[in-house]
Structure formats: structure tokens, C-alpha cells
Design a protein that fits this description.
heterodimer, A: about 240 residues, alpha+beta, Alpha-Beta Plaits, 4-stranded mixed β-sheet, two-stranded antiparallel ribbon, B: about 475 residues, Formate dehydrogenase/DMSO reductase fold, 2 domains, 16 helices, globular
Chain lengths: ~240, ~475
């Protein structure tokens, strides 16, 4: 039985995001993302597969923070894919996700330099997981070594596991059956996840119902990302 | 032999003086017998002065330092280098472009000028070719140093494997591998081909010992027969024309590493010719430095004369003008577009921390050559020429530095902006790379004739002076 083609999509409702960073923590726990030292963070080497970018918008005497959660945008025409000389960065066709084969990566870092969202991360040193932190590592996810790139995969291990389970039971995936760790965790429900190819999915309804305030990050670059941002009205400072 | 024709005319002291002056100026008119030329060229191969040992020690130590730092970096990871997000590429790639650029000029001088029959090129063509090979080899080292897992880099080569994974031919980095391997192979063959007759001369000069065995092996049984010369000429002609597109392609492909990217400041269609011109610019300057060093320290004043300094100085000046045109284009088009990110980059280069680099680059690449090379008197004086050439080296290194880590620091989302800071490991490796090229070149001059004896001899045999009445004519055979 050929696996059905998915178009996994995430909706980020910027009007709901409080910037609590629970998604960041959840992602670290789920995906064995290494936590680097303060010194390394100062050198702009922090690794967060999802991060909350904070911008200050000043209007008159008012200054407001604009929070922008950014994870890999899973572009349909990803700039990071063609530049990898060894196919470590490749397209997972039936999930429509940008895959990253850590074992294949040689560390040219061309994918990062070609990535306009800067959501790919390089392991500058071997990841520091001290005992007993190694006990909490997720066995479904590879621990990356020094010299390879890594990035958000929409929790591919969860998608695969759910799909295999559904396949064993002889059915297709149900809407909402599988969500990435960040979506599962988000307290205000700013993140939504679903399959655009499923006509009855909640995500389709949300996107259709919010056409007036949806936008795609750096759409003019033509990367066709699968992450949709929602933000609207005067109270949000526009897009 | 270019003996002036005395004819039956009465001796004219003025004409004789003019001919003497011409002979003093031009190597090709100042013909000497072959053994004398061979002596002049091959004596420096076996004389090791104090300077030689000093340079050998210096360059050797520098090359070992490169190796040591590289091993240290492989052991600990790339974190020892000053990169972060988003400035993921460091001066290793600056050096990569820089040394490939130097490699390009060697081919240009020996192949393009050979094709165009510039006869003054003969004495410096070997040095330029050899520098091409060594600079390319060093440049080829930098992708290895640059990547995170050097020991996996063989994956970039299309070798048969049980997983049936091939390199990604859409990636500019794969094109790089193909281009480097092709160009390095071509330039080694090209240099060797030009070396063959001289190797045979050296073989016959050193009758015994390891030198004889080395030259006998490398000369591939060259005997100097008519048939061999004819084949040699044909092969060299074919190679000359075949290597020219390879040379242009090489640096264009290097530029595609950048222009294929979405990064602001890189995503530009002018990058191909811009990089080629930049490569020739820095490469010609490097040939000038090497030429001056050879002339000064190897006693080759007979071969490298003011006419060569003059010609190379002019060449450098023309390259400077061409480079100005391209850099103007490269900044004009983004300025016209007025994209916010392009504007921020221009602002960074003109007003913020990168301004000293940017203005320094313009000063070194435009003001210095224009000031020092326009007048013939200045151009033919070695110290001025050397200052101009070194200034161009610095300027072109800064230019690549601006393109790689500086421009990388700014993109569409300002949250990720960052500034690259130079650290010790990459500085040491950069210094080590220069030492490595120097070491290889130094060793080459001790083993092989650095001036193409046969080309100089051939040129001197072909070109001559003829006095017809009161006019001195330069005789030159028609190109067939």
C-alpha cells in the first residue's frame, strides 16, 4: 500500500503567542537538542530548533515587543536542499518535509548560508550531555556529533510512528492524531498542526477562516514554506 | 641567432648606440648562446645561500603550523574558529577564493598570452604556471579544512557504493570539486609539458647522481628530434586553447558558490565575470611579487628586465580598471533596487564597523595601483611595483573577506544578524597557507629550472634586429 502524501502544515497565531518559550523547552526535550554553554550562546551558537524572535516596534511613545516564533519553514522549494553536495539535506517526498540525514552530513554549512530563515544549526563541538542527562535522551532521535547540521523536522519520529501504527490498523491517519512537541506544549494554543492534504482537517478550516490575517514569512523569496503565520489588525502592528 | 646585419653600410655610431640600447632593453634581442643561458638558469638550482635556508625554515615551520592547527581543529571541532550563526563561513573560504584567483592568473599569463603571441611573457611563464599549480593545490586544501567532518569528504566524489548514493549535481560545491580536480590536472599537465625540453637539458647537464635520475625520469625520453618538437608544439597549442575556458570556468564556478545563494549581497548575476576579473587582478599582482623575488634573490636580472616589469605593471593597472568597473556594478544594482537588506548591507560597509575594511579595500585596489603604476618611471622601479602588488594582494583578500563573512552577517531577518570576529586558529592557518605556497615554490626552484630555457632560446632565435639604411627593423617570423 503506497503511503498517502501529506502536506504537514503548521499555523503560528502570533496574536496568541505570549513568548513563554514552552515550545522551545519541549523541542529540546523531544529532539535531544543540545544545550550549549553561556559562552557559546554569546558567540551566537545556541541551538534551538524553534526560537522566539523578539522585535521592538516603536510607535510614538509606545514601544511594544513583537514575538515571532520561528522554526524550519519546511519549504516546498527549499533553498537548503539543492546546495547540499551529499544529499544530507533532502526532501522527504511523502511527508513534504525537509529531511536532514545527520549521518550523511559532512558539514559544509552551505545549507545554513543559503537559508533565509537561519533555522539550521551547526554542532560546533560534540553535544554536552552529562550524566545523568543521557538518561532522558529520546531513543527515537539521533544524538548529533560535532560537525553536522541539524534542524526542525516537525518531529518526524512522531509522524512516522503514528503513520506506522495507522498502517498496522489498516486505516489512514486521523486529523489531530499526531502533533509535534511544540504544538503539544503551547499553553495559549498559538501553534496548530495538521495535514493540508486532508480536506476535513482543522488546519484547513483555520487557514481558510483567517485568510485576512495570514501571511508567509519572506514569501517574496519564493521558497513556498508550509508554515503559515496569522497576525492581524492594528493592535498587532501589521505584518 | 639575432646578429644585426651590418650589411655594407658605413658604420653609424648613432645607429649602433640605438641598437645597443634596444638590445639592453629587450631580452629577446639580447641573444646569448644556449650554454650560457643554461648556466644562468640552472646555477641557482644548486646554490643554496643563507637566505634559502632561512626561507626554507620559515615556510616549513609555517606549513607545519597549518597542519598542527588543522589537526587540533579536527580533534575539537569547528568551535575553535570564530564562526557562529549566521556567519557560518570563515576565512577558510576567503583563502579558497584567494588562492584559486592566484591560480587563474598563472594560466592567463602562460596560456592566453601564448595564444596572443606576447613574446615578453616567455621568461615569467614557467613561474606563473608553477604558481598556478601550487596555489590551486593549496586552495584545494581549504574545502577540506572548512568542512565539519573532513574525514567524510570523499562523499563528494562520485564513487560506486553499495547504497547507490551519488553526489548532488545541483550543488555548487559539487561543481567546485569537479572544477578543482579538472583545473589542477590540466595545469599540472600544462606546466609539465612546458617543462619537458628543459628537463632534458637538465638531464644532459647533470650526468650522474639523483638529479640525473630525476630529470631522466621526468623528461619522458625527450631527445629533441624534429618530430618531438613538432608534436610538442602541437600539443602545447591544443593545451593552450583548451585550458583557457577551463580557467574562466574555474573561477566562475567559485563565484556560483555565492551567487547561487539567497544571501543578500551574493545573489548577483555579475558575480561570474566579477570574480574572474578579481582573480586575474590578484593573480597578476602575485606573479609580479614572485617575479621580483626571483629577479632579486636568484640573480635572474638578465631574464627579468624593466620591459617585463613595465608590461606586468601595465597589466595590473588595466586589471585594476576592469575591477573598478565590476565593483561599481556590484554595488550599483543593489542600490538601484533599494531592498531593505541591501540598503542595510551598504550602510554596514560605508558607515559601520565594516567601513575601514571597505574603504581600505578601495584604497588598496584603486588608489594604490593608479598612483603607482600610471607613470613608466615608477612602474619599472621594482620597489614601487612591489608595493603596488602587495597592496593589491591585501585589497583583494579584504574584498573576499567582505564577501564571505561580512556580508553573511546580515540577511532578511535582523534577529539573526551577527558579526564575525577573526580568531587565532584561522589566522594561523591563513599564514600557514601562504607559507605552504612559498615552500612548494621554493623547493621547485631548487629542483627544476624556473625560467623556460627553450622558450627564451627559441624567442631569441626567432626575433632579431635588421638595419635597412638608417632604419632599425625588428624581424619576426609570421605566425603560421
Amino acid at each position: 500500500m503506497p503511503l498517502p502524501e501529506h502536506r504537514w502544515t503548521m499555523v503560528v497565531d502570533l496574536d496568541r503567542c505570549t513568548g513563554c518559550s514552552a515550545c522551545v523547552v519541549a523541542c529540546h526535550a523531544e529532539n535531544n537538542v543540545p544545550i550549549v554553554s553561556i559562552d557559546q550562546v554569546r558567540q551566537r551558537r545556541a541551538i534551538h530548533w524553534i526560537r522566539i524572535e523578539r522585535y521592538w516596534a516603536t510607535k510614538g511613545r509606545q514601544t511594544r515587543a513583537i514575538l515571532l516564533p520561528i522554526m524550519c519553514q519546511q519549504c516546498m522549494r527549499a533553498p537548503c536542499e539543492p546546495v547540499c553536495p551529499v544529499y544530507a539535506s533532502y526532501h522527504l517526498n511523502h511527508h513534504n518535509i525537509n529531511g536532514q540525514a545527520y549521518q550523511r552530513c559532512v558539514g559544509t554549512r552551505d545549507c545554513q548560508s543559503n537559508d533565509p530563515y537561519k533555522v539550521r544549526f551547526f554542532n560546533f563541538f560534540d553535544p554536552p550531555f552529562d550524566e545523568p542527562l543521557t538518561q532522558q535522551l529520546n531513543p527515537d532521535v539521533t544524538v548529533r556529533t560535532a560537525g553536522v547540521m541539524e534542524k526542525c523536522t516537525f518531529c518526524l519520529q512522531r509522524l512516522n510512528r503514528a503513520e506506522q501504527k495507522a498502517m498496522v490498523q489498516g486505516r489512514t491517519l486521523r486529523d489531530g492524531e499526531v502533533v509535534p512537541a511544540c504544538v503539544q506544549t503551547c499553553p495559549p494554543g498559538a501553534l496548530l498542526f495538521g495535514d493540508r492534504n486532508d480536506p476535513n482537517s482543522q488546519i484547513n478550516k483555520v487557514i481558510e477562516g483567517n485568510e485576512g490575517r495570514s501571511f508567509i514569512l519572506l514569501e517574496e523569496l519564493g521558497t513556498q514554506p508550509l508554515v503559515v503565520y496569522l497576525k492581524g489588525g492594528e493592535s498587532h502592528g501589521g505584518q | 641567432m639575432a646578429i644585426p646585419d651590418a650589411e655594407a653600410l658605413p658604420e653609424d655610431p648613432e645607429l649602433a648606440r640605438q641598437m645597443e640600447e634596444l638590445r639592453r632593453q629587450h631580452l629577446m634581442l639580447d641573444a646569448r648562446p644556449l650554454p650560457e643561458l643554461a648556466d644562468k638558469i640552472m646555477t641557482p638550482m644548486t646554490t643554496h645561500g643563507r637566505l634559502f635556508w632561512f626561507l626554507l625554515f620559515l615556510f616549513g615551520a609555517g606549513s607545519l603550523m597549518l597542519l598542527a592547527v588543522w589537526i587540533y581543529q579536527m580533534y575539537w571541532g569547528l568551535g575553535i574558529v570564530g564562526i557562529g550563526r549566521p556567519t557560518m563561513w570563515e576565512p577558510y573560504l576567503v583563502n579558497y577564493i584567494y588562492f584559486i584567483g592566484i591560480g587563474n592568473a598563472g594560466t592567463f599569463i602562460s596560456a592566453v598570452l601564448r595564444a596572443l603571441r606576447f613574446e615578453w611573457r616567455a621568461p615569467i611563464s614557467r613561474a606563473a604556471e608553477v604558481m598556478t599549480v601550487f596555489a590551486m593545490a593549496t586552495a584545494g586544501l581549504f574545502p577540506l579544512i572548512h568542512v565539519g567532518r573532513t574525514w567524510k569528504l570523499y562523499w563528494l566524489f562520485p564513487y560506486p557504493n553499495e547504497r547507490q548514493i551519488w553526489p548532488n549535481y545541483r550543488s555548487p560545491l559539487t561543481w567546485d570539486v569537479v572544477a578543482i580536480v579538472t583545473y589542477l590536472t590540466c595545469s599540472i599537465l600544462f606546466a609539465w609539458l612546458g617543462l619537458l625540453p628543459d628537463l632534458a637539458t637538465a638531464r644532459d647537464r647533470y650526468n650522474t647522481g639523483w638529479r640525473h635520475r630525476l630529470y631522466a625520469m621526468a623528461a619522458l625520453g625527450w631527445r629533441g628530434t624534429q618530430h618531438q618538437w613538432a608534436t610538442h608544439k602541437l600539443t602545447l597549442d591544443v593545451f593552450t586553447f583548451a585550458i583557457i575556458p577551463v580557467m574562466f570556468l574555474m573561477h566562475t564556478i567559485v563565484s556560483w558558490d555565492f551567487s547561487m545563494n539567497l544571501q543578500a549581497g551574493w545573489h548577483s548575476t555579475v558575480f561570474g565575470p566579477y570574480f574572474v576579473i578579481g582573480a586575474l587582478f590578484s593573480g597578476v599582482a602575485m606573479v609580479i611579487i614572485v617575479m621580483l623575488a626571483m629577479r632579486r634573490f636568484m640573480g635572474l636580472e638578465y631574464f627579468i628586465r624593466a620591459e617585463h616589469l613595465d608590461a606586468m605593471g601595465k597589466f595590473l593597472l588595466i586589471m585594476s580598471f576592469a575591477w573598478v568597473y565590476f565593483i561599481f556594478n556590484d554595488y550599483l544594482a543593489p542600490w538601484y533596487g533599494q531592498e531593505p537588506v541591501d540598503k542595510s548591507l551598504t550602510h554596514l560597509l560605508q558607515n559601520l564597523w565594516a567601513a575601514p575594511l571597505w574603504y581600505g579595500m578601495l584604497f588598496c585596489n584603486i588608489v594604490m595601483p593608479a598612483a603607482l603604476l600610471v607613470f613608466k618611471r615608477l612602474r619599472t622601479w621594482p620597489p614601487t611595483l612591489l608595493v603596488a602588488a602587495v597592496s593589491v594582494q591585501i585589497g583583494m583578500w579584504i574584498e573576499r573577506f567582505i564577501i564571505v563573512p561580512v556580508m553573511m552577517g546580515q540577511n532578511e531577518l535582523p534577529y539573526s544578524w551577527g558579526k564575525y570576529t577573526l580568531r587565532l586558529p584561522e589566522t594561523l592557518i591563513t599564514i600557514g597557507a601562504f607559507c605552504l605556497v612559498g615552500l612548494l615554490f621554493l623547493l621547485f626552484t631548487r629542483f627544476f629550472p624556473i625560467i623556460p630555457l627553450w622558450e627564451v632560446h627559441e624567442g631569441q632565435a626567432m626575433v632579431g634586429l635588421k638595419r635597412v639604411g638608417r632604419v632599425i627593423l625588428r624581424t619576426h617570423p609570421q605566425p603560421e
